[in-house]
Specification:
Layout: H1 3-9, H2 15-24, E1 27-29, E2 46-48, E3 51-52, E4 60-65, E5 96-97, E6 105-112, H3 115-122, E7 130-136, H4 144-149, E8 166-171, E9 174-179, H5 186-193, E10 198-206, E11 209-210, E12 220-222, H6 225-230
Parallel strand pairs: 6-10
Antiparallel strand pairs: 1-2, 2-3, 4-6, 4-12, 5-6, 7-9, 7-10, 8-9, 10-11
Helix pairs in contact: 1-2
Length: 233
């Protein structure tokens, strides 16, 4: 791959814009030598305006999604892509969320440009269960665990019952819900069927990976190889 194509694929601009960046001296190696179009040193040695070049494909990020952001790049209003460097929206292949969160749901969101990894995580055979922390409008009544585990709960407007879901009461009006699937607004609709209303919802884990305590709302970083592996434990 030529350096021009690499820059374009990473979202730094079109090929023509990448050529202009190279001619301007914006791309150097870690020794400060300006790189030419025909060169391609090891990725970790390439700098863009003095900063390390963005990671190459495959790239997987973890984001602590805040309230009020949607997950579609073309959605109106604030989207998760506003929280990332602008060029990330132009990577090729693109970064896509692995299981979206609705606008009012916060917490762990993974994004990847690796289609095989995305499908592996969301495939039922991978058993990458998703755990949510729900805060409810009213106290729990005690029947929720049996209802959610029954495999017979039918959501309004659907004809197929939900798979059994895990439930752990945290006391008062809080609970943890473990899902084997991901239907539209599923947790909120489950509690609506149980006669309650979710006022706050946060995804706290996917598979064996928990939302890092030091990752503040709106912050993101690249997943480490160990964290990627933990998804499937």
């Amino acid at each position: 791959m030529k350096l021009v194509k690499l820059l374009a694929n990473l979202g730094y601009g079109s090929r023509k814009e990448a050529q202009r960046l190279l001619r301007s001296g914006a791309v150097t190696d870690d020794a400060g030598r300006v790189l030419k179009e025909g060169e391609l040193p090891p990725h970790e040695r390439i700098l863009f305006r003095g900063e390390p070049l963005d990671p190459p494909f495959p790239l997987t990020l973890i984001l602590n999604k805040p309230d009020g952001y949607t997950c579609g790049a073309d959605d109106p209003g604030a989207t998760i892509y506003d929280l990332l460097p602008e060029r990330f929206a132009h990577r090729n292949p693109g970064l896509n969320p692995i299981g979206r969160l609705d606008k009012d749901t916060t917490g762990m969101l993974l994004l990847t440009d690796d289609g095989k990894l995305l499908h592996r995580i969301i495939h039922p055979k991978s058993h990458c269960l998703k755990v949510y922390h729900a805060t409810l409008d009213r106290p729990l009544e005690g029947h929720e665990a049996a209802l959610f585990a029954s495999g017979e709960l039918m959501l309004n407007g659907e004809t197929k019952p939900l798979l059994p879901a895990g439930f752990e009461a945290l006391g008062g009006n809080e609970a943890l819900i473990t899902l084997h699937e991901g239907r539209y607004h599923q947790v909120r609709r489950m509690f609506a069927a149980a006669g309650n209303h979710v006022i706050n919802l946060q995804r706290i884990s996917i598979g064996g990976l928990k939302l890092p305590e030091d990752l503040e709302a709106g912050d993101w970083r690249e997943l480490t190889p160990g964290e990627l592996s933990s998804l499937f434990r």
